[in-house]
Amino acid sequence: MPVNLVALGAIATGSVFTYAGVKGLSIPDAVQSIVQGKSPANLPQKYGIDAPVSTPPATGSTAVAGGTATGQAIANDGLKYNGQGYHYGGPADKPGNWDCSSFVSYVLGHDLGQPLPGGKWGDPGFPPHAHGPTTREYQGFGRSIGRADVAAGDLIVWPDHIGIAINNKNMINARSTATGTGLSSIDGTTRYFHTEPVYRRVGA
């Protein structure tokens, strides 16, 4: 029986996408590793499973639509989704169908009724209709603070990732297909990306 090269190509391409998704890698990184002879099964996870961290107490004010959310309220709301999924480019139309930035938009816009970069929840081009603001747009959102001043509810924004601080050391973030939405070390993530994030305060 003749070999169907198109079919084999489709299978190979599907395998690369599968391994990239499971490992939380970009497609180019997955392809490069395979070309270099590295077994996909041995590729490292993009984000490791972090050790348990202490979470802030469920105190402080809760926000109403259009109101002012405290940093503690933002952090507590984000923590409700620890263990949810991840979907690259997801519009955040439901919990877990989000990536890092649409997760932040869900917490701020959907749950707490806060403005988002360039608009608000429900506007055309915004969740739940579309993905909405990207990490690049979040880099200039709110007001700038220093690393030492980071507290619950602040946004930690790299060019390609974003999380919500739950304290000065840790954050809740939508990480990858493999690890979903969970807790990560702020400084550990900075070491992974090899670039310093910006720190933005959006809460009262």
From TrEMBL:
Keywords: Hydrolase, Protease, Thiol protease
InterPro entries from the UniProt entry: NLP_P60_dom, Papain-like_cys_pep_sf
Superkingdom of this protein's organism: Bacteria
Keyword Ribonucleoprotein: no
One Pfam family linked to the record: NLPC_P60
NlpC/P60 domain location: 68-203
Gene3D superfamilies attached to this UniProt entry: endopeptidase domain like (from Nostoc punctiforme)
Family: Belongs to the peptidase C40 family.
Protein name per its UniProtKB record: C40 family peptidase
The species this protein was found in: Actinomadura violacea
Organism phylogeny: Bacteria, Bacillati, Actinomycetota, Actinomycetes, Streptosporangiales
